[in-house]
Amino acid sequence: MSFFKRLFKIGEAEAHAVLDKLEDPIKITEQGIRDLKKDLQESMTSLAEVKGVAIKTRKDADNQKLLAEDYERKAMLLLQKMQAGQLAPADAERLATDALSKKEQAAIEAARLHQEASNHEKMCDQLQTNINKLKSNVSKYENDLLTLKARSKTATASRKINEQLSKIDSSGTISMLEKMKAKVEAEESLAIAYGEMASVEKSVDDEINRALAGSSTQALPGAGSSQLDDLKKKMGIV
Hints:
The chain contains 5 helices and no strands. It is mainly α and 238 residues long.
């Protein structure tokens, strides 16, 4: 394969790949269904036309049959007049012969038209069968398209949710939440510690105040006892 042929093949493959990416299966299917409906409408128009021709042909055939019967009746009347002496035999037989000839022509035409009408009716039956099949296919394709649309939406929504979940894990958000949790717990522990310290200082002051008020005789803590001894000596207690 020459260099230019290989280059053309590569370009062709790339063009098909781009078209595949641009094509939307749902839109293509919708367009396909619209085309089928258009074909269905055209087929129904053709069916109506063929039925109209068949009906007219059958009616013409019946008229020709009636015409043949009428010519035969006229030929009989001519002969009856001849028998009654109301019409010359030569004229009666000539006219009766002409009537029978026309009767034969009408009968032949009636048979031809009946056969033609039958052919049109068979064509109508075949066309009706194809139309029924096309209707069934269009209905089936529309239902399939609705189902595929619903599945496509569900799949898209699931994919987006899964992508979000995947991003949460990969971005370390859970790790960040754990760090925040540890920080909050540390803050809470520190707050408790400060609270306990404040409680201790407050309880000592309260105890001193209660002792001075005479509501308690409990001794002060031992811390700073040397200073206490000095104070006692100063006060002459020891």
